[in-house]
Specification:
The complex is a heterotrimer of chains A (143), B (330) and C (513).
Chain A: H1 2-22, H2 34-55, H3 66-89, H4 91-105, H5 110-131
Chain B: H1 5-18, E1 33-37, H2 44-58, E2 66-70, H3 77-85, E3 93-98, H4 99-106, E4 118-134, H5 142-151, E5 157-160, H6 167-178, E6 188-191, H7 195-204, E7 209-213, H8 214-223, E8 226-231, E9 257-265, H9 270-285, H10 287-296, H11 305-325
Parallel strand pairs in B: 1-2, 1-3, 5-6, 5-7
Antiparallel strand pairs in B: 3-9, 4-7, 4-8, 4-9
Helix pairs in contact in B: 1-9, 4-11
Chain C: H1 2-14, H2 17-35, H3 41-54, H4 59-84, H5 95-104, H6 108-143, H7 146-158, H8 160-163, H9 168-182, E1 185-186, E2 193-194, H10 208-226, H11 231-239, H12 249-271, H13 276-292, H14 303-327, H15 333-344, H16 353-356, H17 358-387, H18 394-413, H19 416-434, H20 440-462, H21 474-493, H22 495-512
Antiparallel strand pairs in C: 1-2
Helix pairs in contact in C: 1-17, 2-4, 2-17, 3-4, 3-15, 4-5, 4-6, 4-14, 4-15, 4-17, 5-6, 5-14, 6-12, 6-14, 6-17, 7-20, 7-21, 9-20, 10-18, 10-19, 12-13, 12-14, 13-14, 14-15, 18-19
The chains are: A mainly alpha (143), B alpha/beta (330), C mainly alpha (513).
Chain lengths: 143, 330, 513
């Protein structure tokens, strides 16, 4: 069943891709092939491959229980929040927090998760900023 | 601080000699300085930031070191938007720019952004365009190349290192326009990833001509593998390229300068703006920078403050005009 | 033997204490950066440019430092590929295919040591190639016009069917997905935005590092989260043992022909500007699989499947220096950065570099030999240290991997948007893994999509839309023939045969599982 849904979604994606390709604006100067042809070919391959999956599905994969899906959704939320808050909070704070939450959700006790998170943040800060000299996000506290 | 002050005095003396801005400019002193390179490390903008930053620091013109931040994306558009929207009032910040910035502004490739949203500081040099053919080619002058294109546009493919509508392409179009070619769209331009790849395809015989910057072609010119048929500069260049005629000498009045320079946030204070204009002009005038220019094949382009602003406005206007003519923008 | 005399002069230049120290520092930092997901050779080199500036290094010294980083990163990429199933950088992608299965079988140490030796062999042979063949090889690069490059990329995708999992349709889907992702951004030929939805962040397209890190590293975090606390995870973790850390002579002897062949393939791919190390390791792996994988063990922890891509990508790294030094044309992202650095140091690469700046060229080549020996000497004893990473429990290790990935991406591009895209790729990677869709073709599509399209369109522009131009040269015809006869036809007509063999193999697989 999963593969049939997958094939269906793939077909939709292919259709969307080809539709998007036909809507690419052409500039007045163009080469003989143009910017649309190659994406349309790719869309067609995508569609054919999806059809093949739809026609001959593999065995059902082992989907996780709902709780675990929520767990993964939670991790995604943490990562998105991390990306958005990084410039606001500064690198060390944001990284320590995100890393602590992930460590906790992966099954470490909260206190140790916080310790691990802070150490991770400081370690990365040392290697990437102090040694390699990359500019990481600066928060209100300057790190 | 004590150690740097004599150098700073020297620097301001040099400025008086140059007749640029005077005393009030020195009232402002940034706490920390930053240069944004609107691309990943290792590219042209990154080097502009790093080399100017290093020279500023070596000459003691700025307090401490200049932090270089890379904000890649959108061909410089992400950094431009960031400076306009989020960092519009910072006084310690400058951003590397070049002809590519002007080209994208002219073609509206930074959606919603215009050159008036930022303050322009100054140029630190220019890389002039060249048109070249393989050494075995029968073509010897720019008018000959243009005549062939006029006679049969399909017979000549020209390779360059930028996309269609990018600077390498526009240079050929400017030259062709001046040479009296009516339909610029018939010119066959093949876009490669950078000048080096384009020259290689010229050597491989896949294309008949090459358009690029003087510095990109230097190695092949020295070795005699390619023949420069025109330099798109107002006068002959110094050094090795002095042997090659300008397009103007050949009766085609085309100039294509890939300049490098800086802009700053639009909300920067007048004092801070004056400070940066003066500092960058001082770098430009220094012997240290002359050495960097010689190393990088940059030709002189001495513009700062208002003169630079007017120059950028001009180049945007002319790029917009030619882009409209060939239908790249409406 | 001019070359040998020049090389001796080069060693005189390179063998100073300062240069040896620079090479050592470069090799070490390179290995570390190569191993960290999100930092690859090109970023690694770029990151150290300011250091070269600050130290005020001369051209020879700066190039010794940076090329050591380059070679080091090529060595380092394999470490996370083997231990974590996360390619440290894009050329190490193929090493995950057999390296991680070997680690799961408790042979992590062996895989690391073997891949270290393979890296050495590839880089060592490539450096000799650089010494003797650079001028001649430049002519090979000139044989490749747009049509020939297009045929080469077609060949790369044609071989995909061979390396992919059981389901060819899913491999094709993955490749098309990758190619589709590569289409996002401003079209390099005409400058019009495609699939960017007016979002300026998408105009530069999607960085392949963002895709790799998202698909491999973040999805790995999700997988662990999914199986947290289950027996499989614990069993899994304990099963990943260290094993022996020195490969046996028998194993090395068995892999030697593989290493020699793939070094050659990788080197040639590296010499072609516009192909590069990733293509080198990819072709090395798939050709080798085609040639020697009679029992179908590739992809299940075959040591030869570890040796092949590592010899291939390190040979390609050496090969990529040929067009950079001899033509001034970067064949990869890393050599583009090196080239920019050379220009900034007043060295003009090009046909005359070997005569104008022999001290730089030969000093650099000598430094490559030295760096290579250092890397081998450093990497074999450090295998024991690397594998200890596996002793860190995943619940601690995985968040660190995730955070390092984020920082690697953010530190380079400074873009929050890239981080969000990476999370999207992480989720996508997890879903694709659940559905048994291979991830390697996705990355291959992202890496090669634009080049493939650009060369097709360049060829068509030059020929005025005459499609026959694609098969106009003997070289192009040769490449097309290999793709079709070697890879496409067997898939179409070998189905019956393979189905029969596949059934037998599945039975065997069930027994050994």
């Amino acid at each position: 069943m999963s593969d049939r849904i997958f094939g269906g979604v793939g077909l939709l994606l292919a259709a969307f891709f080809i539709w998007g390709a036909t809507r690419i604006e052409l500039s007045f100067i163009s080469d003989p092939v143009g910017p649309r042809t190659f994406p349309i070919i790719i869309g067609a391959i995508l569609g054919l491959a999806s059809l093949a999956v739809l026609a001959r599905p593999d065995a059902e994969p082992d989907w996780p229980r709902l709780g675990r899906v929520a767990e993964i959704a939670g991790a995604v939320a943490v990562m998105v929040a991390y990306a958005l808050l990084l410039p606001e909070l500064g690198f060390v704070i944001a990284t320590a927090a995100a890393s602590a939450i992930l460590t906790w959700r992966l099954g470490t006790r909260p206190l140790w998760a916080v310790v691990s998170g802070v150490l991770t943040a400081l370690g990365i800060y040392t290697v990437f900023h102090l040694i390699l000299g990359l500019s990481l996000a600066k928060g209100p506290l300057g790190f | 601080m004590l150690a740097t002050s004599p150098i700073r005095r020297l620097a301001s003396a040099a400025l008086v000699a140059l007749g640029t801005l005077a005393a009030p400019a020195l009232a402002f002193e940034p706490e920390a300085t930053e240069c944004i390179a609107p691309a990943n490390p290792g590219g042209g903008w990154d080097f502009t930031c790093r080399q100017v930053g290093k020279t500023l620091q070596d000459l003691g013109l700025i307090p401490g070191t200049m932090q270089v931040t890379n904000i890649a994306g959108g061909g410089g558009g992400v950094a431009f938007a960031e400076v306009v929207n989020k960092r519009g009032a910072e006084n310690g910040l400058i951003v590397a720019a070049s002809t590519a910035t002007a080209t994208r502004l002219a073609q509206g490739a930074y959606p919603g952004n215009t050159m008036d949203q930022v303050r322009w500081i100054g140029a630190v040099g220019a890389d002039y365009g060249i048109v070249a053919v393989a050494k075995s080619s029968e073509i010897n002058t720019l008018p000959e190349l243009m005549d062939r294109i006029k006679a049969d546009p399909r017979s000549i493919s020209i390779a360059g290192g930028s996309a269609v509508g990018g600077w390498d392409h526009l240079k050929v179009l400017i030259a062709a326009d001046k040479a009296g070619i009516e339909d610029l769209r018939t010119i066959k331009y093949v876009a490669f990833d950078g000048g080096g790849e384009a020259v290689t395809q010229l050597l491989a015989g896949s294309v008949q001509a090459f358009t690029g910057d003087a510095s990109e072609a230097k190695g092949f010119v020295d070795s005699g593998d390619i023949k420069v048929i025109a330099v798109l500069a107002p006068e002959r260049l110094e050094g090795d390229f002095g042997a090659f005629p300008t397009a103007r000498e050949q009766g085609i009045d085309a100039i294509g300068a890939n300049w490098r320079g800086f802009y700053a946030p639009g909300g920067m204070s007048d004092e801070a703006h004056a400070y940066w204009v003066e500092r960058v002009a001082t770098v430009y005038a220094s012997p240290e920078w002359k050495a960097v220019m010689a190393q990088n094949g940059l030709a002189p382009l001495d513009l700062s403050g208002d003169a630079f602003r007017a120059f950028v406005a001009d180049s945007i206007a002319s790029i917009a005009e030619i882009s409209r003519e060939i239908g790249l923008i409406k | 033997m001019d070359a040998l005399a020049s090389l001796a002069d080069g060693f005189a230049v390179a063998l100073t204490w300062q240069n040896l120290l620079l090479a050592l520092v470069g090799c070490f930092l390179g290995t570390v950066m190569g191993a960290l997901p999100g930092l690859g050779p090109s970023n690694g080199v770029a990151i150290l440019i300011p250091l070269a500036f600050t130290l005020g290094l001369g051209p020879t010294e700066a190039m010794i430092l940076l090329t050591s980083v380059y070679y080091g990163a090529m060595y380092g990429g394999r470490i996370s590929s083997i231990l974590l199933n996360i390619p440290g950088d894009e050329p190490a992608l193929m090493t995950t295919l057999d390296g991680y299965p070997m680690a799961q079988q408790g042979r992590a140490g062996e895989a690391l040591a073997l891949s270290g030796v393979a890296s050495f062999v590839g880089a060592f042979l490539a450096t000799w190639g650089l010494v003797f063949l650079a001028p001649q090889l430049v002519k090979v690069a000139l044989l490749f016009g747009p049509a020939e490059y297009f045929a080469l990329f077609v060949l790369a995708f044609a071989t995909l069917g061979g390396i992919a999992s059981r389901n060819q349709a899913k491999a094709a889907f993955a490749a098309a997905l990758g190619l589709g992702i590569a289409m996002v951004g401003v079209d390099g030929q005409t400058g019009v935005p495609r699939f960017a939805f007016g979002e300026v962040h998408l105009y530069d397209g999607i960085d392949f590092l963002v895709a790799i890190v998202g698909l491999f590293a973040l999805s790995e975090v999700f997988i662990f989260l999914e199986h947290r606390g289950e027996d499989t995870v614990e069993g899994h973790a304990s099963k990943v043992g260290i094993g022996r850390v020195i490969p046996s002579g028998r194993l090395l002897a068995r892999c030697t022909p593989t290493m020699l062949r793939t070094s050659l393939i990788g080197f040639v791919a590296g010499v072609l500007p516009g192909a590069g190390a990733s293509l080198g390791s990819f072709l090395a792996y798939s050709m080798e699989k085609k040639l020697v994988d009679r029992e179908g063990t590739f992809g299940k922890g075959d040591p030869r499947g570890v040796a092949a891509p590592e010899a291939g990508n390190n040979a390609a790294a050496g090969g990529a220096l040929v067009p950079m030094l001899a033509l001034g044309v970067p064949g990869s992202g890393t050599t583009a950065v090196l080239l920019a650095m050379l220009l900034a140091l007043n060295i003009t690469p090009g046909p005359l570099l070997f005569t104008q700046n022999p001290d730089v060229v030969w000093g650099l080549i000598a430094a490559l030999f030295i760096g290579n020996l250092m890397l081998l000497a450093m990497n074999i004893p450090m295998v024991g240290m690397f594998v200890r990473v596996l002793l860190v429990p995943p619940r601690i290790l995985m968040p660190i991997v995730a955070m390092v990935s984020f920082v690697g991406i953010y530190g380079i591009s400074g873009s929050t948007f890239d981080l969000l895209v990476m999370v999207v790729f992480g989720v996508l990677g997890w879903v694709l893994r659940k559905l048994d869709v291979p991830l390697v073709p996705v990355i291959l599509g992202v890496l090669l999509g634009n080049l493939m399209e650009a060369n097709l369109r360049r060829a068509m522009t030059i020929s005025d839309g005459e499609w026959s131009a694609l098969v106009a040269s003997p070289l192009a015809i040769g490449l097309w023939t290999v793709s079709i006869v070697g890879f496409v036809l067997p898939i179409l007509f070998g189905r019956v045969l393979r189905a029969r063999m596949g059934r037998r193999k599945d039975e065997e697989g069930a027994v050994s599982d």
